[in-house]
Structure to design on (336 residues):
């Protein structure tokens, strides 16, 4: 009987010793760097991956030297269900514990992307795709979906005009739809209740304001000129004159080289304000807050025309004769 008890006691002590040694080994290995090369590795963890799939992904990237130890550490730290999908920048100089901590904290790699004012959705898609944040075709499909636009409170058939130009910090797990929601959310933050009330006071819909703002932004990049350009368009609308905005004539053209030609002005398209009367059916770009405010607060002037001078700004005129003189003057200067 005593022999049996002694055997049990020895077996128990042996098990305790094994557990202690295993614990020490896990701690030692868990704090040891993967290797000494200090190689930086980008690991993309897709949404919906199980913990075992994540470990396999890390193993393929050369960041796991001992799967049982790595798995045990993750269980001890409660990491199995806490890892956020996304792209992680890891290093082989890190220990398994450091890698697990970074995964649990969700320290994913963000990409700083600046969307300039007056970019079209096609240009936005190209820039995001260049940073490997979206597939260009997928982004454009969603951005041009009328149902998506309606779900975001947009009157038009696409999101053109409603993806606010700004600097964003995005990660590769987001996808097109989430990025669109972020950019559209920024638009609605900028288009404040004050601006909505101002639009109502002018008898304009939000869609008309955004459309006009996109034309203003495309015509001039000078903040101080935007209310003047806005005044020209407002004055023309009141008089029933065609808006004759050059950027509307080339909207939608692929591989446009930046030079508007006479044949462009004759294009029979829904947006070409040399052909149609009034505003286009929707925005031709994504305007910033300066253009949006200018559309709602035009300068109190009687200008009906403007022409580009040689420094990027414009000469404004109240009548056709003055405008023609300005056009002739700047054409002569350009030839010189």
């Amino acid at each position: 009987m005593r022999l049996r008890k002694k055997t049990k006691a020895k077996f128990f002590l042996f098990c305790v010793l094994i557990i202690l040694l295993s614990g020490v080994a896990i701690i030692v290995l868990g704090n040891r760097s993967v290797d000494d090369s200090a190689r930086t590795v980008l690991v993309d963890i897709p949404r919906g991956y199980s913990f075992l799939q994540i470990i396999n992904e890390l193993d393929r990237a050369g960041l796991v030297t001992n799967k049982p130890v790595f798995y045990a550490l993750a269980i001890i730290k409660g990491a199995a269900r806490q890892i956020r999908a996304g792209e992680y920048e890891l290093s082989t100089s890190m220990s398994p514990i450091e890698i697990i901590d970074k995964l649990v904290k969700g320290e994913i790699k963000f990409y700083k992307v600046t969307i300039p004012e007056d970019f079209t959705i096609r240009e936005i898609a190209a820039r995001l795709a260049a940073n490997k944040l979206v597939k260009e075709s997928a982004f454009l499909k969603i951005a041009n979906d009328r149902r998506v636009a309606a779900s975001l409170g947009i009157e038009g058939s696409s999101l053109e005009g409603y993806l606010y130009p700004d600097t964003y910090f995005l990660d590769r797990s987001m996808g097109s739809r989430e990025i669109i929601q972020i950019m559209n959310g920024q638009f609605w933050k900028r288009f404040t209740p004050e601006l909505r009330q101002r639009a109502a006071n002018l008898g304009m819909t939000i869609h008309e304001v955004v459309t006009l703002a996109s034309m203003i932004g495309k015509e001039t990049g000078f903040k101080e000129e935007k209310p003047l350009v806005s005044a020209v368009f407002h004055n023309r609308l009141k008089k029933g004159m065609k808006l004759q905005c050059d950027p509307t004539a080339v909207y939608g053209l692929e591989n446009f080289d930046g030079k508007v030609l006479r044949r462009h002005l004759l294009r029979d398209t829904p947006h070409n304000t040399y052909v149609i009367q009034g505003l286009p059916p929707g925005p031709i770009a994504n305007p910033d807050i300066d253009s949006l405010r200018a559309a709602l607060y035009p300068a109190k002037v009687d200008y009906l025309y403007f022409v580009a001078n040689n420094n990027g700004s414009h000469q404004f005129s109240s009548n056709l004769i003055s405008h023609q003189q300005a056009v002739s003057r700047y054409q002569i200067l350009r030839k010189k």
Observations:
- Residues 2-30 form the longest helix (29 residues).
- The CA atoms of residues 228 and 299 lie 5 Å apart.
- Confidence is low (pLDDT under 50) at residues 11-26.
- The longest strand covers residues 40-45.
